[in-house]
Amino acid sequence: MRKLDSKKEFSFSNPTDFSKWIKIFAKNLGNKELILLNGDLGSGKTFFMTNLLQELGQDAAVSPSFAIHNRYETKNLSVDHLDLYRLKNLEDLESTGFWDLFMQESGIIAVEWANKIDVDDFMDSWPIWEIEIQITSGQARKIIVKRFLGSKHR
Length: 154
Ligand SMILES: Nc1ncnc2c1ncn2[C@@H]1O[C@H](COP(=O)(O)OP(=O)(O)OP(=O)(O)O)[C@@H](O)[C@H]1O
Ligand SMILES: [Mg+2]
Hints:
By secondary structure, this protein is α/β, with parallel strands linked by helices.
C-alpha cells in the first residue's frame, strides 16, 4: 500500500490564480515524478499540463483526447502526458507500452483520468502527486493535492 505523505487543498477563483499555483508547483518538482490528474470533463487537467509545460520551457499546447500519449523533451526533463479518457479496460493498456514508461530512471509522467488505475498499481519507485480538480462554480476551482512517496523515500 502506498503511504499518504500529505494532503492539501487550494481554491482558485479564476484560471490566472490556478496558473500561478501550477507554475510554483512545477518549479518545485523533482526529476522523477508521477502526476495523476483527476476531475470532471473541462475541470482543467489539460490546462494544468499546458501551464506545467510552459514553466518547463515547452511552448506547444496539447490536444488532449485526440492523442492518448504526447512526449515532450523539455530543457532538463522528458514529460510524458497521457490521457486515459477513452480507455475501456486496463487490459487495453498492456499493449500500448504505457507500463514501459515507468522503466525510465527519471522524467515526469502525467496522466489525465488516472483514477481508472488504482494508485497501488503504479510502480513503487515513482513518487506520486495526485491532483483532483473540482469545479466549484464557473471559473472557480478547488484542488485536492495528495502526496504519496516512492519506495526510495521511505
Ligand atoms: N480556474 C480555472 N482553471 C482552469 N481552467 C479553467 C478555469 N476556469 C475556466 N477554465 C476553463 O475550463 C476549461 C478546462 O479545460 P481542460 O481541457 O483543461 O479540461 P480537462 O479537465 O482536461 O477536460 P477533459 O476531461 O475533457 O480532458 C478551459 O476551457 C479553461 O479555460
Ligand atoms: Mg484534458
